Amino acid sequence: MAERTFSQGMIFGIVIIVLMFGGLYYMLSAPTSLNGGLLEPSNTPYTHTINVTLYANALGWDYGIKGDHTNPTFNITAGTRIVFTVIEDDTAPHTLTIADSPSESSTHLTLVTTSQLTQIIGHKVVASYVFNKVGTWTYWCEIHTTTMVGKINVIASANTSAIPNCNSPHSAGPHSQNNNLDSFFQFLLDISGAIIA
Amino acid sequence: MSTTDYLIEVSVTISIIFLILFFIYYKYNSAKSEMDSVAEKNDYVDTGSYFRDKFGGKTKEIGIKPFLLNDSKSIGIRYIITSIIFFFIAGTFGVIMRVSLVEPTPTLFLNRTVIYDVLTTQHGILMIYMWALGSALGFSYYLLPSFLKVKKDSMGGYSSAAYWIYLLGAIFIVLSRSSTRWYFYPPLSINLNPYNAGSFNWLAVLGMEMIFVGVVIAAIVVIKMIIMDRDDSIKIEQMPIFAWAVLFTLIMLVASAPFFMLGLAMTFYDFFNPIFFVSSSSSPLSFAEMFWIWGHPIVYIAVLPQFGLIYEIMPKFTGNKVYSYASGVLALGLLMPLSELVWGHHLLNSGFGIEWGLFFATASFVVVIPSAITVFNYIATLWTSTKIRMTVPMLFVVNGIFDFIIGGITGVIQSNLALNEVLHGTYWVTGHFHFIFLGITTGIGFATIYMLFPSLTNGRKYNVRLAYWHFTLTAIGSFIMSMGWTVGGFYGMPRFVAGYFARFQAFQDTAILGGVIVGVAQLFFLANIFVTYSKKPSISTNNALEDAYNLPAVDGGE
Questions:
Q1: Which of B89, B191, B196 has its CB closest to that of A32?
Q2: Domain range A38-168, its CATH number among 3.30.300.30, 2.60.40.420, 3.40.50.2000, 3.40.1160.10
Q3: N or C end: fewer C-beta atoms under 10 angstroms in chain B?
Q4: Is CATH 1.20.210.10 the classification given to domain B70-302?
Q5: Comparing A159-163, B158-162, B281-285, which segment has the lowest mean pLDDT?
Q6: Can you tell me the distance from the alpha carbon of B65 to that of B50, in angstroms, rounded to the nearest whole number?
Q7: B93 to chain A: which residues are within 8 Å by CB?
Q8: pLDDT for B40-69, tens place per residue?
Q9: How many Å apart are CA B87 and CA B405, to the nearest integer?
């Protein structure tokens, strides 16, 4: 033991140095690019404003009419500022979260948080966002991700007047995650059928 | 191949695997019950400890072996290794934070100031829970068995499990990159906020809870060691003061940790269903109260064992006994209940009302009494000595007393109700506790490591010149840094922010100078490890701290 020159103590020192710089690199590489550009400064220019009232219910977002849980799709033009008025409709906690992707994404922005929207029916929270990026956006509730999810289509042409139109729930199409889940269930059904046969 | 065939094959394979697993479990279980009965015959509760004592050798050295054994010395070395590593990680964060404040406008973290919040959070949590608490637990595990000549070292399994839970919790904290400060105030901590730096707050809360589980288990094991496993020849009224200090500390820890553990559990629930700490059904302030009932004792937990260590280190270099054993123990004992009563002074401006404010302010003033007893006891011990040997550990001790006096006085001043309105949330507070944490916690921690050096490094001497530079730069740098903060804070320089008003630049730059000096000083410690290990072991592995209880030892320095 006494003959060792490169001993465990040396390794200890090297481990310290490696972890020092590794830890620093890890902290400094924290993604702070404001959610891939989702969070915009409050003075972002916008062409016009539309008001959207959403009822937050665990069965689905309601637009306009309470109780049909449609998860409406909004078609707007780029540069539109949507003022969301989120109203608590059941006693469950909800968020209003958006992402610039066709499905839920980990780089997202929560416009209305659970601590803002209380669980008292009728409680109202107003939040706004300027949709500048063209493409399909997704809005959802982070707690009820499979039921409360809808789309916002942002179109480039700035001339057409943007009127949010409420489509039927089927036009939004089944969610991709549900697709996977459905095929999985179908697979299970096939297997069980095969066993019984 | 049809689905049916495939399914049958899979089922048969899985069944065989499970049969093999069951067989292994059966063999293990029968062997374990045999081992248990053997261990029980030999009067051991913990089977692992019995076989460790019977077959495995004990180790006193830094390395990989302590991580495989579970005797108290090994557990102590594990905690010491971990605490040193995390001290360097968190220290790097601190230095980078300092350097980023060189200009009033954020320089290093321009447009991403949340990095500053992340670094502040990590620096605070890791320094307190991993360095201060970890090194205190490490020294307790390492020193107490020989100080108290423990009869039986039989709780190794629990200690080992506690250590791994604690370490995993710390790793979770680091991985979370959380940007809630070390106090986890909601609603910031219950929001998985838009910045990714805070989107893993749940992991930080989970990691914190794991650290607590580990620490509380370890605390109970050490309390049991002190009270029940002490040798009959050492009476409780003659215990080393370090044992008293650890006992008081850990009783305090076990008494106050549940508040914050419960608060964390409620915070975790709030991620899914916010009812506990939101303004609609409760108040975020209730979390702050639950936190500070724990949060004030933790800062005493970080210094009390070190006070005990000063009582152990000092006589080695002054040649006489501690001036007054009884008053030393009494002072440490008084600090225990008082620290539980003063937590409200962290929230003096939160609207408690003047009655509570006066109560907490008065209680905070009363803390002066035991602190002053302790300091005067140290001074009297130095005063009555005929010759003081100013070795590196002793220099750390003297500097620690000096820094504790400054830090203590600045602390008492800010508990004044009127002044607190001005001083709270400023760098005054940062300066106050960095005086104490750098002087006492870090200084005495390194003093103890230098004292234990021959044991920890398998009989090597530390390089005195490098150690002397380590001490000198730490002492000078920490004084400059903390003084810059204290003075700047008195002018209203706010803390916890990535930028500042231009009129504070002189104070900030002073603090940066000090901070960089402290950072460079720790590199001398690192260099010391390399220099030491490049030489062959030349002295006995006994150390000066345990010599009275152990074998004749040699002084660590060369």
A1: B196
A2: 2.60.40.420
A3: N
A4: yes
A5: A159-163
A6: 17
A7: 23-24, 27
A8: 887 776 676 676 667 655 667 787 888 888
A9: 24
